[in-house]
Specification:
mainly beta, 8-stranded antiparallel beta sheet, 1 helix, VWF_type-D, VWFD domain-containing protein, disulfide bond
């Protein structure tokens, strides 16, 4: 796995899809940025870098540098349980948007991984929807959508995926997922 640091190659622009409408005006849409975390410690940033990060702590995957939507996506990693060859690490995922806070807690009950979902401190069950957030899923997979800013966070058994639109959030993010800036490292 490549570690973060100086790279020998220059960043490349991310894909753009352009089309002409019937009046021959050009309409361009940029690709969304996707960040992935898997197996508790492996990261793929918005710009395509991979790195490992392990430890019991809380940290931001995504945080706006200049708050416009009060978007924050953070993870808390806690102690792991070991059973034979398997390992289970307790995680919680927080997704904040405007005045709403979604907390997804993962637990291991008799060998079965389950997720509990809370919105503003109150337990909810997917499917849940308020004015700003849509939550769908099961005990294993929980999907948090924020339609206003076209953002999706998916929390699976051992992975988290964050998808953000460059057009709304671009160049205004920091955290483990990096800056969403249309640059892609090979």
């Amino acid at each position: 796995m490549e570690k973060l640091g100086m790279l020998a190659t220059a960043p490349q622009p991310m894909c753009q899809w352009c089309s002409k409408n019937r009046n021959h005006f050009l309409h361009c849409t940029t690709a969304n940025g996707v960040c992935n975390v898997w197996n508790e410690e492996n990261y793929l940033t918005f710009d395509g870098r991979t790195f490992d990060f392990d430890g019991n702590c809380s940290y931001y995957l995504v945080k706006e540098i200049i708050p416009e939507y009060n978007l924050t996506i953070s993870v808390t990693k806690e102690d792991c349980e070991y059973s034979g060859d398997s390992k289970f690490c307790f995680h919680s995922l927080n997704v904040g948007f405007k005045s709403d806070m979604v907390l997804i807690k993962q637990s291991n009950s008799s060998g079965t991984v389950q997720k509990q979902v809370y919105v503003n401190g109150k337990q909810v069950y997917p499917a849940y929807k308020n004015e700003a957030i849509l939550i769908t899923g099961t005990d294993i997979v929980v999907n948090v959508e924020i339609p206003e800013i076209k953002t999706e966070v998916v929390y699976r058994d051992s992975s988290i995926s964050v998808e953000l639109p460059q057009s709304l959030i671009g160049k205004n993010t920091e955290g483990q997922c990096g800056m969403l800036n249309l640059l892609k490292y090979p």
